[in-house]
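Appendix B. Chain record.
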Amino acid sequence: MELRHLRYFITVAEYGNVRVASNHLHISQPAVSRQIHDLEDELSVQLFDRTTRGLRLTKAGEQYLLEVRRAMAMLEAAGRSARMVMEGRLGRLSIGLVEIAGWEGLVPSALGEFRKGYDDVGLHLHPITTPEQLRAIEDGTLDGGFIYAFDPLPEDEFQSVSLSCHNVVLATHLNWREGSGADLSIRSLATEPFVTFQRAVYPTYYDQLINACSRAGLTMQVVQEVGSEAAMLSLVSAGIGIAIVNSCNLWRAPSRVNFVQIKDLSVPLPLSFAYLRSNSNPALMRFVETLKGSLARAN
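Structure tokens predicted for this chain:
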């Protein structure tokens, strides 16, 4: 049985006349009659009663017509869905992001624009660290991710879109040095207790921060290491110590924390969107197009 048998059957059932159906199908009348007979033989079911006035569906034929129309509608819907997936307008997209980068600016803007333009694509966001994202992208768990890339990505494997560059600020308790808001020198912090994140969280960033402080003349007196900047800011809020954190924290400052610029310390945090060159998910290509459009408008 082929799809044409079903199309011929539906047309004959609708017109109740082989000649009229053949004209509509642009196929010879004998060919249509033969296909209907072949279909009945294959099913071992009489679908039509033959009368002098034409063809009339039997009860079995009426039921078969109902089921065939339902099946054809499902096939047409499947075809539409397949085309939408091919065009990147339907499917699933898994994106990672460093949570702090998604609070303001280009990242939430691009995500919102994509969600609005491609609402049939299931967009799933995963707030995890850059090293975790890169591992997940490589093993196929993520389609792409918003990362802080300090090390060059392998160009034969990864494609990336450079987005912006953040930096670091000093986080202090609100009453630290009587709420000092002036820019500070890094050397003036030599005797202060620091809280930092654990090196295992992001070794490259940790090393860059420690080396930048060392070059500027500071060896941090670390009193506690934790697993995230959120935990660091909790300790700062409690007065346990001060911390050097991503400047994006300015977008969502805790009520008991003050942020101060360090005039002689710079640790650039280059934000980019990365994905595998081999990833063939059409929805990913639509997302990259949307992201580049948002980036062009922002600039």
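Further analysis of this model is presented in Appendix C.
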